[in-house]
Design brief:
Strand content: 5-15%
CATH architecture of one domain: Up-down Bundle
Bound molecules: flavin-adenine dinucleotide
Radius of gyration: 22 Å
Structural class: alpha+beta
Shape: globular
Strand order of the largest sheet: 2-3-7-6
Number of strands: 7
CATH superfamily of one domain: Butyryl-CoA Dehydrogenase, subunit A, domain 3
CATH class of one domain: Mainly Alpha
Mean pLDDT: 88
Order of helices and strands: HHHHHEEEEEEEHHHHH
CATH topology of one domain: Butyryl-CoA Dehydrogenase, subunit A, domain 3
């Protein structure tokens, strides 16, 4: 049974990050959304605070050979940090220096030499450094097995050709974890995972995507045109891929580690929206309206608060299972599916409650209403989460009846 009491360390981290979000993120949030970029002063504040994506675990269980276990913070602590910073502004959290989504695959299957080499850049605190994770392609989103970026074996390494799309921090990453295929007809078994460094000839950044929400965070297209990647950048080395489907497994393991974090981000935004709605309702309506109206508003606000807490519990459960190294793929998908859906509804209800008769909405609520939409899309859409949950359920039923 998970213990839901926060430890002293968790309480301290939450209080500090909430202070940071209040003082360094929220005041910059609306302007960053307008200019579609993060102000440089934010990175100075990050430098002073020592906060970075390094707080996030690179993989729930440390590295494959156990050597990275010291790199591990608990996923539960990371989930808590995600909620607090996302409560400030999720774009700022996604723009924190660090390996980002690229961290788990390097940590999980990278050799010691690769981990040391690729993570070394983040020790430089003089300027922000980023990693990225490039799986999605224009014709392959949910259907990961359909990727077409090719990796052809050539003397000393591989030649990559293809386009990746919607890559978080892709435009400014020092290196990118890139999924490619040696032969599309092999499906998942043909997948290989590379780290491609910025400046590699043949690797360029295409367009920056214009988005509905999370506008301050960079999302870019990446292009590989006869891009030579040396053998030593094949994650895990050649031997690692002799087991079939290994490349695909890496992509999925990354999601098991990061879906609880994404769910926690959605909880942070939904909590922010529910709190803001409560503040505005109290300010604008409660004193001016008769009691029945007040009661309806209270019920709506209490309902939002209850759903935020339920979403948080599912998220914590998936993080708890990862920390005790139990299978948590189903729990992570449940947390992401429930939270994504409820958070979108909560942000919409917060707007509806506070912007009557189509008047201009509160700018934060309007922004969170846009920001929250993608939480039902990236790292597996709501439908894909349901497929994962159903698959695990049928596996359990199959095991019971001996199939
Ligand atoms: C802001 C943002 C940041 C992102 N960051 C990254 C990143 O850093 N790295 C990266 O690799 N990708 C990233 N992505 C891409 C993201 O993961 C994909 O958009 C997502 O996987 C969905 O793929 P798609 O957009 O091609 O939609 P599609 O896969 O084409 O899906 C379209 C619709 O069909 C549904 N659908 C698809 N297949 C099924 C099925 N089998 N059963 C039922 N319904 C189905 C989907 O649920 C969805 O509603 C990002 C996307 C956004 C918007």
């Amino acid at each position: 049974m998970p213990d839901f009491h926060e430890t002293d360390q968790e309480k301290t981290v939450r209080a500090y990050l909430n202070y940071f979000a209040r003082s360094e993120i929220r005041p910059r949030s609306l302007e960053a959304d307008r200019i579609e970029d993060i102000q440089p002063e934010f990175y100075q504040a990050v430098q002073r605070s020592g906060i970075s994506m390094e707080m996030m675990p690179r993989s729930p269980g440390g590295s494959r050979d156990g050597a990275g276990a010291h790199e591990r913070t608990t996923l539960r602590l990371s989930v808590l940090a995600s909620e607090e910073l996302s409560w400030g502004d999720a774009s700022f959290l996604l723009s924190l220096p660090g390996p980002g989504l690229g961290g788990p695959p390097v940590s999980f299957i990278g050799t010691k030499e690769q981990r040391d080499r690729f993570f070394a850049v983040f020790k430089d605190t003089e300027r922000p450094h980023f990693g990225a994770y490039a799986l999605t392609e224009p014709e392959a989103g949910s259907d990961v097995a359909a990727i077409r970026t090719s990796c052809e074996e050539v003397p000393g390494g591989y030649r990559l050709n293809g386009t990746k799309t919607f890559i978080t921090n892709g435009g400014r990453a020092d290196w990118v974890v890139v999924f490619a295929t040696i032969d599309p007809s092999l499906g998942r078994a043909g997948h290989r995972t590379f780290v491609v460094e910025r400046g590699t000839p043949g690797f360029s950044v295409g367009r920056h995507h214009k988005k509905l929400g999370l506008r301050a965070n960079d999302t870019s297209e990446l292009v590989f045109a006869d891009c030579f990647v040396p053998e030593e950048n094949l994650l895990g080395g050649r031997a690692h891929y002799e087991q079939s489907k290994e490349g695909f497994k890496v992509a999925m393991q990354t999601f098991d580690a990061t879906r609880p974090l994404v769910a926690a981000m959605a909880v942070g935004i939904a909590r922010a929206a529910a709190e803001r709605a409560r503040e505005l309702v109290e300010e604008r309506y409660v004193l001016a309206r008769p009691l029945p109206r007040y009661r309806a508003l209270r019920e709506a606000l209490d309902d939002m608060d209850r759903r935020v807490r339920a979403a948080r519990l599912l998220t914590w459960k998936s993080a708890f299972l990862a920390d005790v190294r139990e299978p948590q793929s189903r729990a992570a998908s449940m947390a992401k599916a429930y939270t994504g859906k409820e958070a979108v509804l909560i942000c919409r209800e917060a707007l509806e409650l506070t912007a009557e008769s189509g008047e201009a909405p509160d700018p934060f609520l309007e922004k969170w209403f846009r920001d929250i939409r993608v939480f039902d899309i990236f790292e597996g859409t709501a439908q894909v989460q349901r497929l994962v949950i159903a698959r695990r359920l049928f596996e359990e039923i199959g095991a019971k009846v001996g199939l």
